[in-house]
Amino acid sequence: MCTVLTVNDLNVYYGAIHAVKNVSFEVREGEVVTLIGANGAGKSTILKTVAGQLPARSGTVDFLGQPLGSIPPHKIVTRGLALVPEGRQIFQQLSVEENLEMGAFTRPKGESSGSMDEIYARFPRLYERRRQIAGTLSGGEQQMLAIGRALMSKPKLLMLDEPSMGLAPILVGQIFEIIRELNQNGTTILLVEQNAQMALSVAHRGYVLETGKVLLTGTGEDLLKDESVKRAYLGG
């Protein structure tokens, strides 16, 4: 099993605020790895830094054995890394199909049609809504669209930032079932999620962050049973 992503001694600042402090972790091919922690723990900051949207003060990010360094975000996408951002950030005024086409902007023309068919097969609701303006979709449908748009780039690593945010409990369950199915079909996933119970239930491994530092790591199963994790994040 090869290592897809290696983050080593990452430090990220917002002005004078030290948001991410010497964080190290890895994601191996075929895994779901989750980062959990309270708001402000640095989870989303890490994903944005890996995706090239924020600069690191120090540390390294290697993707498929190559340093990402100061590579711009669109070039990172062409290497096979896709981020589904917090809050979905779909193109509200475009149709569902136009949003999906935007997800394939880094790929040669003519290669996206097969991917579109795959997305519609995975998300039949998006096919039903393909001509609809994306901003009129429900929250769950918008999240499916955001995931589908990212998958259009054929990522070797899919990063999901708070995919259950703002969704009703029944929709949360649907989104995590989608995550599980994507992984079972071969997609490697790095997941940031406030709902620690759900995240750890689908993850092979997890990292617990607190105030920008990795506090604890282990398998998803072990962290679900850990008393300190239960007290802090699982209502136990």
In brief:
The chain is an alpha/beta fold and 236 residues long.
Describe this entry's structure for a reader:
The strands form two sheets. The chain has a six-stranded mixed β-sheet with strand order 6-7-8-3-9-10, with helices on both faces. Helix content is 37%, strand content 27%. The radius of gyration is 17 Å and the shape is globular. It has 236 residues and is of the alpha/beta class.
Distinctive features:
10 helices, globular, 236 residues, six-stranded mixed β-sheet, 27% strand
Q: What topology does this entry show?
A:
Layout: E1 3-14, E2 17-28, E3 32-36, H1 43-50, E4 58-63, E5 66-67, H2 73-79, E6 81-84, H3 96-103, H4 112-122, H5 124-128, H6 139-151, E7 157-161, H7 169-184, E8 189-192, H8 196-202, E9 205-210, E10 213-219, H9 220-225, H10 227-233
Helix pairs in contact: 3-6
Helical stretch tally: 10
Cα-to-Cα separation, first versus last residue: 35 Å
How do the strands line up in the largest sheet? 6-7-8-3-9-10
Major sheet, described briefly? 6 strands, mixed
Mean pLDDT score: 92
Which descriptor suits the 3D outline? globular
Helix content: 25-40%
User: Strand-and-helix sequence, N→C?
Assistant: EEEHEEHEHHHHEHEHEEHH
- Strand % is 25-35%
- Number of E strands: 10
Radius of gyration: 17 Å
